[in-house]
Amino acid sequence: MKRVLLLSLSLVLASASLFAQEKDKTAAPQEKKKPASPHEMVSQTIKGGTNVTIHYGSPSVKGRTIGTNLEPMNGKIWRAGADSATTFEVSKNVTIEGQSLPAGKYAFFVINNNDEWTLIFNKAWQTWGAYSYDKNKDQDALQVKVTGGKAKSFTEKLTYTIDKNGTVTMLWGDHAVTFHVKA
């Protein structure tokens, strides 16, 4: 009698397990979770026929305070985005704020020093964040200083724009940093 009960119980459990597996197959597929800092790209052909492209992870402010508990921290190197280093690519030789930058792809870093921003274009573009910048400092192709300003309106997600005249603007929270690229 015990054997019959055990066999019956085993069959019931096995049937329930198979039913649950079949039901699972018909359930709606799980939605993919959106990344916290989606990867974005902006590209523009500027005067002179030069293509300028920026790839970056676009974090959100989410109520945090830039410079306190959100990058960039004052005086510290920042990858100018999230995840892997932001890349800045030009198809031809250009000048940035009047200084030469050869055609190529670069890691783009910034240092915020209150209203003065240092823009860094580094040849070691395949890097994660700014963590390896110290070992690649010697690969800087260009450093240039620009004055940052207050954005006209708050920008929740880090955003880059490039216009046809070669004006590049980084908008992040209440910060606006602009520089000029010329072919």
From TrEMBL:
This is DUF2911 domain-containing protein. Residues 1-20 form the signal peptide. Keywords: Signal. It holds the Pfam family DUF2911. InterPro entries: DUF2911.
